[in-house]
Each structure stands twice: as structure tokens, then as C-alpha cells.
């Protein structure tokens, strides 16, 4: 009679070898015990892997996204704005996607390395926004309203260094228009 045992322990790769069973032993009992332990470990690893995969696919909540970006306080016509700063390619491309609301007087400031004419769209953004394009001196060149989930391009009328997104209608509600100056820009 032969007994099959694992030669590498419960955490290593499985290699079986046959050797003679001792009298009174139940064949394969030890092997089954290790296989059961190994199966439990495999299931636990698969569950943990699935949880990490799901967590990576779920969009961050607005508060979680905000915690990841630095903020700055801007002033426009004596109105104070708290803005998240999107200064990297990744943060600029993600922007306010998947946000369903913004707190009062809060938005996102996009900072570009060089003066350019970047265009914006609203793919995956369920929140209607207004965007102010701002030149390097802090002067607003133009303001545009953007509709949720739209692929329409919204571009500045002149080269800019900054863009400020706020909830739609915020600029009009604060009587802020093209030509006004944004203070405290980074």
C-alpha cells in the first residue's frame, strides 16, 4: 500500500511522491488535509484579488478625489473660491469626471505648464459645469457652459495658462465675466 504526501508543505508548489504507508494509517488522509488547506488559501487569494480589482474599477467619491489633489484659495471680484488644483497630465485628464455635485464656491483649477489653447469636453461628467479660461496674467478670456456627458469641445478664445471649472451658472450668479481678474493663482 502506498501513501501520497506533499513534499513541499502547504504553501509551496505541489509535488507528490509515493512512499510506503505505515500499518494502521488511512491512505491519503494527510494529503487530503494539506490539499484542503491549500484550496482554502487559493480561494482566499482569489477573493482578495477580486476585491482589489473591483476597488480599482469603482470611481472614487468626490471627497476621495478631493483628498488626493491639493487645493488653493482664489479670489475673483471679492468672491472666494476653494479650488482643487489639477496640475498633472493625469489629474487634468480626469478632472471632475464622475462627480455628481460640487460644494458651494468650490471647483477645479486646471494648471498647464505652458500657455496654450486647450479644449475641454464633458465625457463621463454628469454634473453641468461652467468653465472660465484664464490667461497667464489672471485675466478671464472667456466663459463657456458645458452640458453633462457631452463630447462638444469648449476652447479658449486666446492662449491661456489656467481654466477654472465651477458648477454651471456659478460665474453668472456671481456677476463674473470675461475681462475680470482671478487673484492668487499658483
Residues in helix, %? 10-25%
Which strand order does the major sheet show?
Answer: 7-6-8-5-4-3-9
Structural class: alpha+beta
Number of separate strands? 9
Low-confidence stretches: 1-6, 51-60
CATH fourth-tier homologous superfamily of the largest domain: Protein of unknown function DUF192
What's the main sheet like?
7 strands, mixed
- Counted by DSSP, the helix tally is 4
CATH architecture of the largest domain, please? Sandwich
Task: Give the total of domains.
Answer: 2
CATH topology of the largest domain: Jelly Rolls
Percent strand: 25-35%
Overall 3D shape: elongated
User: What CATH first level of the largest domain would be assigned?
Assistant: Mainly Beta
Order of helices and strands: EEHHEEHEEEEHE
- Rg from Cα: 29 Å
Distance between the termini: 80 Å
What is the averaged pLDDT score? Answer: 81
Structure report:
The chain has 186 residues and is of the alpha+beta class. It has 2 domains: 2-57, no CATH class; 62-183, Jelly Rolls. Helix content is 25%, strand content 31%. The protein contains 4 helices and 9 strands, in the order E-E-H-H-E-E-H-E-E-E-E-H-E. The chain has helices spanning 29-57, 62-68, 89-94, 170-173; strands spanning 2-6, 16-20, 71-76, 79-86, 106-116, 129-134, 140-146, 160-167, 182-183. The strands form 2 sheets. It has a 7-stranded mixed beta sheet. Strand 3 (71-76) and strand 4 form a beta hairpin. The longest helix has 29 residues, at 29-57. It is elongated. The N and C termini lie far apart (80 Å). Mean pLDDT is 81; it is low at 1-6 and 51-60.
Amino acid at each position: 500500500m502506498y501513501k501520497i504526501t506533499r513534499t513541499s508543505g502547504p504553501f509551496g508548489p505541489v509535488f507528490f511522491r509515493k512512499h510506503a504507508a505505515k500499518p494502521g494509517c488511512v491512505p491519503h488522509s494527510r494529503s487530503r488535509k494539506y490539499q484542503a488547506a491549500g484550496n482554502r488559501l487559493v480561494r482566499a487569494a482569489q477573493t482578495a484579488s477580486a476585491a482589489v480589482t473591483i476597488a480599482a474599477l469603482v470611481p472614487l467619491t468626490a471627497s476621495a478625489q478631493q483628498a488626493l489633489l491639493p487645493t488653493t484659495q482664489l479670489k475673483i471680484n471679492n468672491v472666494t473660491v476653494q479650488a482643487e488644483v489639477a496640475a498633472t497630465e493625469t489629474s487634468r485628464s480626469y478632472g471632475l469626471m464622475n462627480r455628481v455635485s460640487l460644494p458651494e464656491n468650490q471647483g477645479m483649477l486646471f494648471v498647464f505648464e505652458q500657455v496654450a489653447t486647450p479644449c475641454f469636453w464633458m465625457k463621463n461628467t454628469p454634473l453641468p459645469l461652467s468653465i472660465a479660461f484664464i490667461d497667464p496674467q489672471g485675466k478671464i478670456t472667456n466663459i463657456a457652459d458645458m452640458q453633462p456627458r457631452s463630447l462638444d469641445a469648449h476652447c479658449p478664445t486666446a492662449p491661456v495658462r489656467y481654466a477654472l471649472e465651477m458648477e454651471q451658472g456659478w460665474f453668472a450668479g456671481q456677476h463674473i465675466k470675461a475681462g475680470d481678474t482671478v487673484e492668487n493663482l499658483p
